[in-house]
Write a structure and sequence with these properties.
Elements (H helix, E strand, L loop, with lengths): L1 H18 L6 E7 L5 H14 L3 E7 L2 H13 L6 E3 L7 H7 L13 H4 L13 E2 L2 E2 L12 E6 H6 L15 H14 L5 E4 L6 H6 L18 E2 L4 E2 L4 H16 L11 H9 L3 E7 L2 H8 L9 E5 L11 E2 L7 E3 L6 H11 L2 H12 L13 H13 E2 L4 H4 L15 H10 L7 H25 L22 H8 L1
Parallel strand pairs: 1-2, 1-3, 7-10, 12-14
Antiparallel strand pairs: 3-13, 4-5, 6-10, 6-11, 8-9
């Protein structure tokens, strides 16, 4: 009898094994617009997979506008990746993806107050990674990470004779010097090398990047292509800094010192062309050194390129770039069928250990102060520039939550449109004032329309709610400080 029971048990075990096949690893798909940083992200995902053999991660980098188009199509076809980056377009695109399209999964099940406490104070904020009281993303960047720099090709500058008596390269501090240096590069190289290059095909972000000098020349904006001045409660493209920059940029184009193919290449291609010495100056972000390590491994920081502050109108900071201490880089799709696995990947990438390693790859500061210790060379230079060039404003939506319900749309011909027109020769100096007036009028009209639409929908809001006259843009100011001043 005992023997029969053992046989029956054995058969049951075999039959049970046959009826429940062994499950393979879960695959989590990530789509990112961070093309330059994708090798470093992949390194971190390899660490994750080693520690979590039951989860495999597919990383798909997509360039700028291509990413925005493909992610939209993916959600429409119910075929979105499990994790996606939040760079979905200009203005309120990320917010609309959360509140209107419902693309993002609320993370409160996992992102508890205890989990949030592992991040620096003030890095979770309404309108950035929290909407309607729910968490949809988590902090990624350190505030210095936001900043932009001018990268100088050392070999190009030396070949053009742009060196001091000790052989160190001279670097431009003003737009006048930038233009003069660019002309000298073209002249000394017989037109084989240009002064300035960029990747216009990348779209609005890359086009706005080359105009970032306005942010230190008197313009008060969150970002170049969305220049809402909260101290006045209106858009500020009528600021003199914009007219001065367009004049400078058109002069450089007419000098023949802008790389002609800039209008036909994207940001990734432009970075490679800069490393190859096609032009001597390139304005871009903190991700560039990491990109060169992948695409141009012999292009070395310090000996082949350096990072300097972006030149501005006078060489002195008259205003600052503004960025929140809060940030959002990735979200989990509401369509995911692997929510638990996706959360594990998401949480790992946002953890302190991963962030410190990531900074050590040359990708710039993450939200944790400890990530600064992993940086050296050009990365450390960029962190210092960011510290000098950036001010942290209050979170205006926390003071007046109703303005977060105002949803603006992109204008038809914004600043990026006119930057491209200037680069291609369609915008002339004589047209600058009229073009900027049109941009300013269109943005302010769109703000008014959006406010009226929100009010009609029941939101108690007016255009006046966007003005915070007690805010001092050239100083760091906390939300609590401005709230107290505004009473």
């Amino acid at each position: 009898m005992k023997k029969l029971m053992l046989i029956a048990l054995g058969l049951g075990t075999v039959m049970g094994t046959a009826s429940v096949p062994a499950q393979g690893p879960v695959t989590v798909k990530i789509w990112t617009h961070m093309v330059a940083q994708s090798p470093s992200i992949r390194k971190e995902l390899d660490v994750f997979e080693k520690n979590n053999p039951n989860i495999k991660v597919e990383l798909t980098p997509l360039v700028g506008a291509q990413y925005q188009q493909q992610i939209s199509l993916a959600f429409k076809s119910n075929n979105s990746p499990d994790i996606f980056s939040t760079a979905l377009g200009e203005g309120d695109a990320w917010k609309k993806a959360v509140t209107d399209s419902k693309w993002a999964l609320p993370l409160d099940k996992w992102a508890t107050k205890e989990w949030q406490a592992g991040f620096p104070k003030g890095t979770f904020a309404d309108g950035t990674n929290i909407f309607d009281g729910k968490v949809y993303s988590a902090p990624w960047d350190g505030f210095q990470q936001c900043c932009f720099y001018m990268f100088v090709n050392v070999k190009v500058f030396k070949a053009a004779g742009l060196v001091d008596s000790k052989g160190n390269v001279l670097t431009p501090k003003t737009w006048t010097e930038e233009r003069r240096f660019a002309k000298q590069i073209v002249e000394k190289t017989g037109g084989k090398t240009y002064g300035l290059g960029f990747g216009a095909k990348q779209g609005e972000f890359a086009l706005g990047s080359i105009a970032t000098g306005t942010l230190w020349s008197g313009a008060t904006c969150d970002w170049i292509t969305n220049c809402l001045d909260y101290s006045k409660g209106r858009y500020a493209y009528d600021n003199l800094a914009f007219a001065q920059w367009f004049g400078h940029f058109i002069d450089m184009r007419e000098d023949g010192s802008i790389f002609p193919q800039s209008v036909a290449v994207d940001d990734e291609q432009a970075r490679v062309l800069f490393a190859e010495g096609k032009f001597g100056m390139y304005i871009n972000g903190v991700w560039s050194p990491g990109s060169w390590k992948s695409t141009n491994p012999t292009f070395k920081e310090g000996t082949d390129y350096i990072a300097i502050p972006v030149p501005n109108a006078t060489g002195k900071r008259r205003s600052f770039m503004h960025t929140s201490g809060a940030s959002a880089a990735y979200a989990i799709s509401s369509q995911t069928k692997n929510a638990e696995a996706a959360w594990k990947v998401f949480s790992f990438l946002h953890g302190k250990e991963s962030a410190v390693r990531y900074a050590g790859y040359g990708e710039g500061l993450r939200v944790y102060p400890e990530s600064a210790k992993a940086m050296d060379g050009v990365a450390a230079q960029m962190a210092q520039i960011g510290t000098d060039d950036v001010k942290i404003p209050p979170t205006f939506t926390r003071i007046r939550p109703q303005i977060a319900d105002v949803k603006t749309n992109p204008v038809n011909k914004g600043l990026a449109y006119h930057i491209l027109a200037a680069a291609s020769g369609q915008l002339k100096r004589i047209d600058i004032r009229a073009a900027l007036k049109q941009v300013n009028d269109d943005y302010n009209a769109e703000l008014k329309r959006a406010v009226e639409a929100a009010a009609k929908a029941g939101v108690k809001v007016s255009v006046a709610d966007f003005q915070f006259s007690k805010w001092t843009p050239n100083e760091d100011m906390t939300t609590e400080e401005l709230t107290a001043l505004s009473k």
